[in-house]
Input
Amino acid sequence: MSRIACLRIPQFQIAVHQKHEPELKNAPFVVLDNNTEATGNGRAKIFMCSDKASQKHIIAGMRLSEAKAVCSTLSFRKYESQLYQTAQKKLIQEFVLCSPKVTADQLGIFLLDASGLSHLGGENTFCRNLLKAASKAGFTEAHVGIADSAFAAEVASRLKNKRWHVVPKGQDKDVLAPLSIWHLPISFEMKEALADLGIKTMRQLLSIPVPELIERFGLESLFAINLAQGIDKRQPSIPPPEKHFECSVELGGPMEALNETLFILKSMIDRLLLQLTKEDLVAEELVLAFYNDNDKFDERPVKLLRPSGNGKFLLEVLRLSLEAKPLMREYTGLTLAVSRFTNALWEQEEIDEVAGQKKQDDDLSPALLLMLQRFNIRLGENVVVRPLANDQHMPEHAGIWIPVLDDAKQHPVLPLSNNYLKVYSNTKGNAANLVLKQHRDPIPVLVKLNGLLPGAIAYQGQWYRINQITIPDRLSGLWWEKAVYKSYYMAEAEPQQHQDAGIELVLLTEHNNQGKSSWFMEGYYD
Output
């Protein structure tokens, strides 16, 4: 029987920031939501709070402006996925010294193979060594659980007042039985429904016949039953070797001249690009560090606007960084590393058929890309922006500014539609000469949302599944001095339980100032 260890670092994102910035450990500190920028915007929401912040009655989901009103000394940072992933990869390399199989299940949770420890001091010694490795890496608040399954080991790592907890072999089900169903990684709706039925523990969950649970909750209930019995398919695996691209130079004496520095950097870039080319990779971010007698006094990350494998471009970018922020002292050694990289994309360029004809190329020229890089280094990231039309209710929301090199698809933008009915109306609806029968007053309907759009509606005592729905046709303005914010949809729906004919209908949603919506049926086609 295999044994699995789970090492859990609570509030991993908070711990990573505190490791890099020790001054945050003794201050109330929060991490902002991934969808907001850490610019002090009052609309930004809090994703995670430190213990000091929680003591000030600050909670996750609170707006940053509200939290600052509660605690004027609050510190905050934006959510940095790359920073957390890098920290997690470094921890995996540390934990490999304790177990050859290590897998990062999610941020701050690691699964390790804990089999065959009888000749290595036993499982308690393994837990102690694992916690020492985490503490050495800068994460002192870690907890470990060992069990036969990954789920039981993770639950064991959450038991209070213990740095580690070992579940005896073959007893996963017995240990899990009296624990709350809220440990199960199932939907919040299912947990609430089970609680309403009086099912509070995993033992009570297992007492219900499986067919009844599946009929009520679907396959999710079968997943919950397996976990409650200690059946979990997750297993740790051998981590892939970490790719590392770094070049260091030790000089015979001190140096500070820019031209000599660039000469050295050119050789280092050529060497790094040779390694990247062998792996079909290009650089996304560089880190340049300067040393004076083994004392690192300057380190600067240089984020590229676009991935590049062009040595001349990379050298020019580093030159711009040194000119924008000159070195304050001489150095005796330097290190250049590619901290982020990505797969190279190879494309054949167009061949001009007519001599002198200007090639049509949507990509940015090297000169323009270099100019944008200069703006980024001297003024900061995302300072060069472009407007993008956004089909929203009010004029102040009718456009947004996005960085010129960002993909518009990554932003919540609704494209403009100047010919809405022709493009988006369904051929089975009014395009087929059907007549819209409009209700005198829109009828409120209950909807099941599929993302932001309804996936089903309740109408005349039965549920209708929505097969097709248009993008919204928006209406806004003032009607008798009352603000109007409405969106209209045409949808094709069919009954879920009967084989009746489907219907073509018009749905209406009214938006209020609090961002909430009410749904109505405006009419149907006949």
Summary: Residues 36-41, 347-362, 421-431 have pLDDT under 50 and may be disordered. Residues 246-343 form a domain with the Dna Ligase; domain 1 fold (CATH 3.30.1490.100). The chain has 15 helices and 22 strands. The chain has four domains: 4-8+84-228, 246-343, 384-416, 420-525.
